[in-house]
Specification:
198 residues, alpha/beta, Rossmann fold, 3-stranded mixed sheet, globular
Length: 198
């Protein structure tokens, strides 16, 4: 199994380490690789889109010709997981843009998001999260986190923080507003791999 991490910006190495821990946790043979070119999508079974800066990431996606290939990858049924900025890019609609179309989303999950809605980096925080399918709380690390404002009828909420959706799934697409790669806990990455292996 080969899993790609979109390596345009953000916590790429941390996600690769978390995926490697997940391979060991699930006792499966796998490799986590960096993805920067459309041709690299052909060799992978799943794609992880990390956190970072959504405007920069969107520009890089277009610069490297990755927009349509990623959309096709998701529509083909292959799993994609987006965390923080990655979840923003997976959305159908992004609110609070400084200019119309500043960040053009991929539209792979029927949700509306608001960027940096939980505050600035200095207001980052950690909260235990109940995540459907996990036997105990997961340490949710929130850094300049977006807010999922609305989800469509086919989108399933896997975790909430109060009344806020913080992890959702639509078919083969997972979106998280927190950073599981910073938690020293590979269970969320293992959930993603299970979409592929089982």
């Amino acid at each position: 199994m080969k899993i790609g991490v979109l390596a345009l910006q953000g916590d790429v190495s941390e996600h690769i380490s978390a995926l490697e821990s997940s391979f060991r946790h699930l006792k499966v043979s796998g490799e986590a690789v960096e993805v920067r070119r459309p041709s690299q999508l052909e060799d992978i079974s799943g794609l992880l889109m990390p956190g970072g800066e959504s405007t920069t990431m969107a520009k890089q996606i277009d610069r490297f010709g990755l927009r349509e290939p990623i959309i096709e990858f998701g529509r083909s049924g292959k799993p994609i997981m987006g965390t923080c900025a990655g979840s923003i890019l997976l959305a159908k609609e992004i609110l609070d843009q400084k200019a119309p179309g500043e960040v053009k989303p991929l539209g792979l999950i029927d949700m509306t998001v608001r960027r940096n809605a939980f505050g600035r980096q200095a207001e980052s925080f950690e909260r235990p999260l109940r995540i459907e399918g996990l036997d105990r709380d997961f340490p949710g690390v929130f850094i300049r986190a977006p807010r999922i404002v609305d989800i469509g009828k086919d989108v399933h909420s896997l975790s909430r923080l109060g009344s806020e959706h913080v992890m959702v799934r639509q078919g083969n697409i997972l979106a998280l507003t927190f950073h599981p790669e910073l938690a020293s806990d590979c269970r969320v990455h293992s959930m993603f791999l299970e979409l592929i292996t089982f």
